[in-house]
């Protein structure tokens, strides 16, 4: 899994980072977006719908920060 550290970044920066770097993952692999911005909870799933990627869900990074999981499908 590739983990993107977007702590402290406000919308739309976590989504810009996801869009810029998700292709570093192999098709089928996960990309985790670790973000403190509450908007990421809505923005990451919306980005997945628009880009045809799979939103897997939300869990927590080691420090308890929300991590939003995306599976690269193409």
Automatic annotation (TrEMBL):
Belongs to the sulfur carrier protein TusA family. InterPro entries: TusA-like, TusA-like_sf. Transmembrane segments: none annotated. It comes from freshwater metagenome. This is Unannotated protein. Signal peptide: none annotated. Coiled coil: none annotated. Residues 4-28 form the UPF0033 domain.
